[in-house]
């Protein structure tokens, strides 16, 4: 049996600095956050950590109460000589504990959407944010005043019911038979921020032909508005269910969600890979072998790129260069020069354009591949969708490929009015959105590899703008333009 004393021992041993910072924070905030390193918890007591991960809801509540008790113990130890800021310290009653830096083990980490067997567990889920809902303010606890005896009743909302609260049916005082109540508002209200977002499984971690699934993540308190569409995130949270009020002769509506405890955003390191020592040694041994003839070593690498397509070394070299990319440069005045290059392949059907695009998408650690047939500007950039009466932004191909490669086949099949939407995304690496009252700017730091058919027979005496059905403004954004 784990009591609050065990949690207090852990907090006072490993988190005394964090508790001191908590005591020094200004009073009056609705909630306070205490970050706990999961590796420290494992080092302190393995059984304690296992109990927390198997029964997270109960143990996190106990950990929050223990944090308040640990503040009181810590405050009694301090003196004005050892801590001159003792007068500024105060005990914070509403503490929410957030876990981070948990070990990367199969029992905890999920790259696929959790199933029913994971219900009630604390898991780490990796994914890409595809949709973020609007910010809401929910009343978690309601106070009702009986009109007969004037006693005040407290009614707390249930997370699984989305904090939907109804008026009490009878007074809690046994001697009172009142059934009419007045809802106390104003300073008596106890509210919190609330937001729902959808994450999608990372495409690069799925098997070929597997359709990525999505899952709803519930954010509360300080986690609200920390993510936007297109972000790569790691969610630490509890797998639970949300259900609507039951209706007679209707199927019960259940939805599996993740109640987020903490979030890590990986926007800057999304293309970073763990390079093994074996890969490094093979790299150096390859170039040592060809140190006298580096072009022969380069040609061997080009021959290994998309071996299904014979030769076309110039096209393969251009594809490899744009996948590797360049270095973003920012001068002293703040002007930014993008490091990503774009490639356009023009050729008749059957020349291997699609094969090169598919191989390039496999080679990049983060990639999205799509076709221009039936593709719209909303699918390429961002779409505004309405769900449960509210508008939300859903990321398209360019936003989901942020920090990676976006492969577009049959580019000429996209309507001209839709192709205009990617001009800003390719040049400025951002998308300005103003839809359904939602105004924001999303990052599209992606490399575009596109393929298209020529307009009739390719005339080598004419410029490329006369041979492809693509406007000059879009053509100018491609650094490499090759004809197969």
What does this 3D model show about the protein?
Strand 19 and strand 20 form a beta hairpin. It contains 15 helices and 22 strands. The mean pLDDT is 80. The chain has helices at 4-14, 16-24, 38-44, 46-54, 56-77, 277-289, 294-304, 313-324, 353-363, 377-380, 397-400, 416-419, 423-427, 464-467, 472-475, and strands at residues 32-37, 95-100, 109-110, 122-132, 136-146, 152-156, 181-184, 190-200, 214-220, 232-243, 254-265, 329-330, 336-337, 343-346, 367-371, 382-387, 390-395, 405-409, 430-435, 438-443, 447-452, 480-483. The chain is an alpha/beta fold and 484 residues long. Strands 4-8-9-11-10 form a 5-stranded mixed barrel. A 5-stranded parallel beta sheet has the order 15-18-21-14-22. The longest helix is centred in the N-terminal third of the chain and has 22 residues, at 56-77.
Distance between the termini: 71 Å
- Please compute the radius of gyration using only Cα atoms: 29 Å
Category from helices, strands and their pairing: alpha/beta
> Helix count?
15
Query: Which whole number gives the mean pLDDT?
Result: 80
The 3D shape can be described as elongated
> How would a crystallographer describe the biggest sheet?
5 strands, mixed, barrel
What proportion of the residues form beta strands (DSSP E)? 25-35%
Number of strands: 22
Q: Give helix % range.
A: 25-40%
Please mark out the parts with pLDDT under 50 across 5 or more consecutive residues, or reply none.
Answer: none
In which order are the strands of the major sheet placed?
Answer: 4-8-9-11-10
């Amino acid at each position: 049996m784990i009591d609050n004393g065990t949690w207090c021992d852990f907090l006072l041993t490993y988190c005394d600095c964090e508790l001191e910072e908590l005591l020094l924070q200004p009073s009056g905030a609705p909630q306070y956050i205490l970050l706990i390193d999961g590796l420290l918890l494992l080092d302190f007591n393995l059984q304690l950590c296992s109990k927390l991960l198997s029964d997270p809801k109960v143990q996190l509540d106990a950990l929050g109460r223990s944090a308040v008790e640990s503040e009181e113990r810590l405050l009694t130890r301090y003196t004005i000589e050892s801590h001159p800021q003792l007068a500024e310290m105060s005990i914070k009653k509403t503490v929410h504990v957030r876990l981070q830096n948990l070990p990367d083990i199969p029992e905890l980490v999920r790259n696929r959407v959790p199933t029913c067997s994971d219900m009630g567990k604390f898991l780490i889920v990796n994914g890409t944010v595809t949709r973020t809902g609007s910010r809401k303010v929910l009343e978690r606890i309601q106070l009702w005043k009986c009109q007969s005896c004037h006693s005040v009743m407290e009614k707390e909302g249930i997370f699984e019911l989305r904090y939907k609260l109804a008026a009490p049916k009878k007074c809690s005082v046994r001697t009172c038979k009142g059934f009419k109540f007045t809802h106390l508002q104003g300073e008596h209200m106890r509210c919190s921020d609330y937001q729902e977002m959808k994450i999608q499984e990372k495409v690069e971690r799925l098997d070929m032909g597997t359709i990525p699934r999505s899952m709803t993540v519930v954010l509360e308190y300080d986690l609200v508005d920390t993510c936007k569409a297109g972000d790569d995130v790691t969610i630490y949270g509890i797998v639970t269910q949300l259900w609507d009020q039951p209706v007679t002769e209707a199927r019960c509506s259940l939805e599996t969600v993740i109640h987020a405890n903490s979030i890590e955003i990986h926007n800057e390191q999304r293309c970073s890979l763990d390079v093994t020592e074996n890969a490094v040694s093979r790299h150096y041994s390859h170039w040592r072998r060809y140190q006298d003839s580096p072009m022969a070593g380069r040609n061997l690498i080009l021959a290994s790129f998309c071996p299904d397509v014979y030769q076309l070394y110039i096209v393969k070299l251009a594809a490899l260069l744009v996948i590797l990319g360049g270095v973003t440069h920012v001068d002293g005045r703040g002007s930014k020069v993008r490091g990503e290059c774009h490639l356009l392949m023009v050729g008749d059907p059957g020349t291997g354009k699609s094969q090169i695009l598919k191989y390039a998408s496999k080679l990049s650690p983060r990639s999205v591949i799509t076709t221009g047939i039936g593709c719209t500007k909303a699918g390429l950039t961002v779409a505004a969708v309405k769900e449960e009466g509210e508008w939300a932004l859903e990321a398209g191909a360019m936003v989901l490929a942020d920090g990676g490669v976006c492969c577009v086949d049959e580019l000429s099949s996209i309507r001209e009015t839709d192709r205009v939407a990617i001009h800003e995304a390719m040049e400025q690496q951002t998308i300005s959105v103003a839809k359904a009252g939602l105004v924001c700017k999303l990052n599209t730091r992606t490399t575009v590899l596109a393929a298209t058919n020529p307009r009739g027979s390719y005339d080598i005496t004419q410029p490329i703008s006369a041979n492809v059905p693509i406007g000059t403004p879009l053509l100018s954004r491609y650094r490499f333009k090759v004809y197969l």
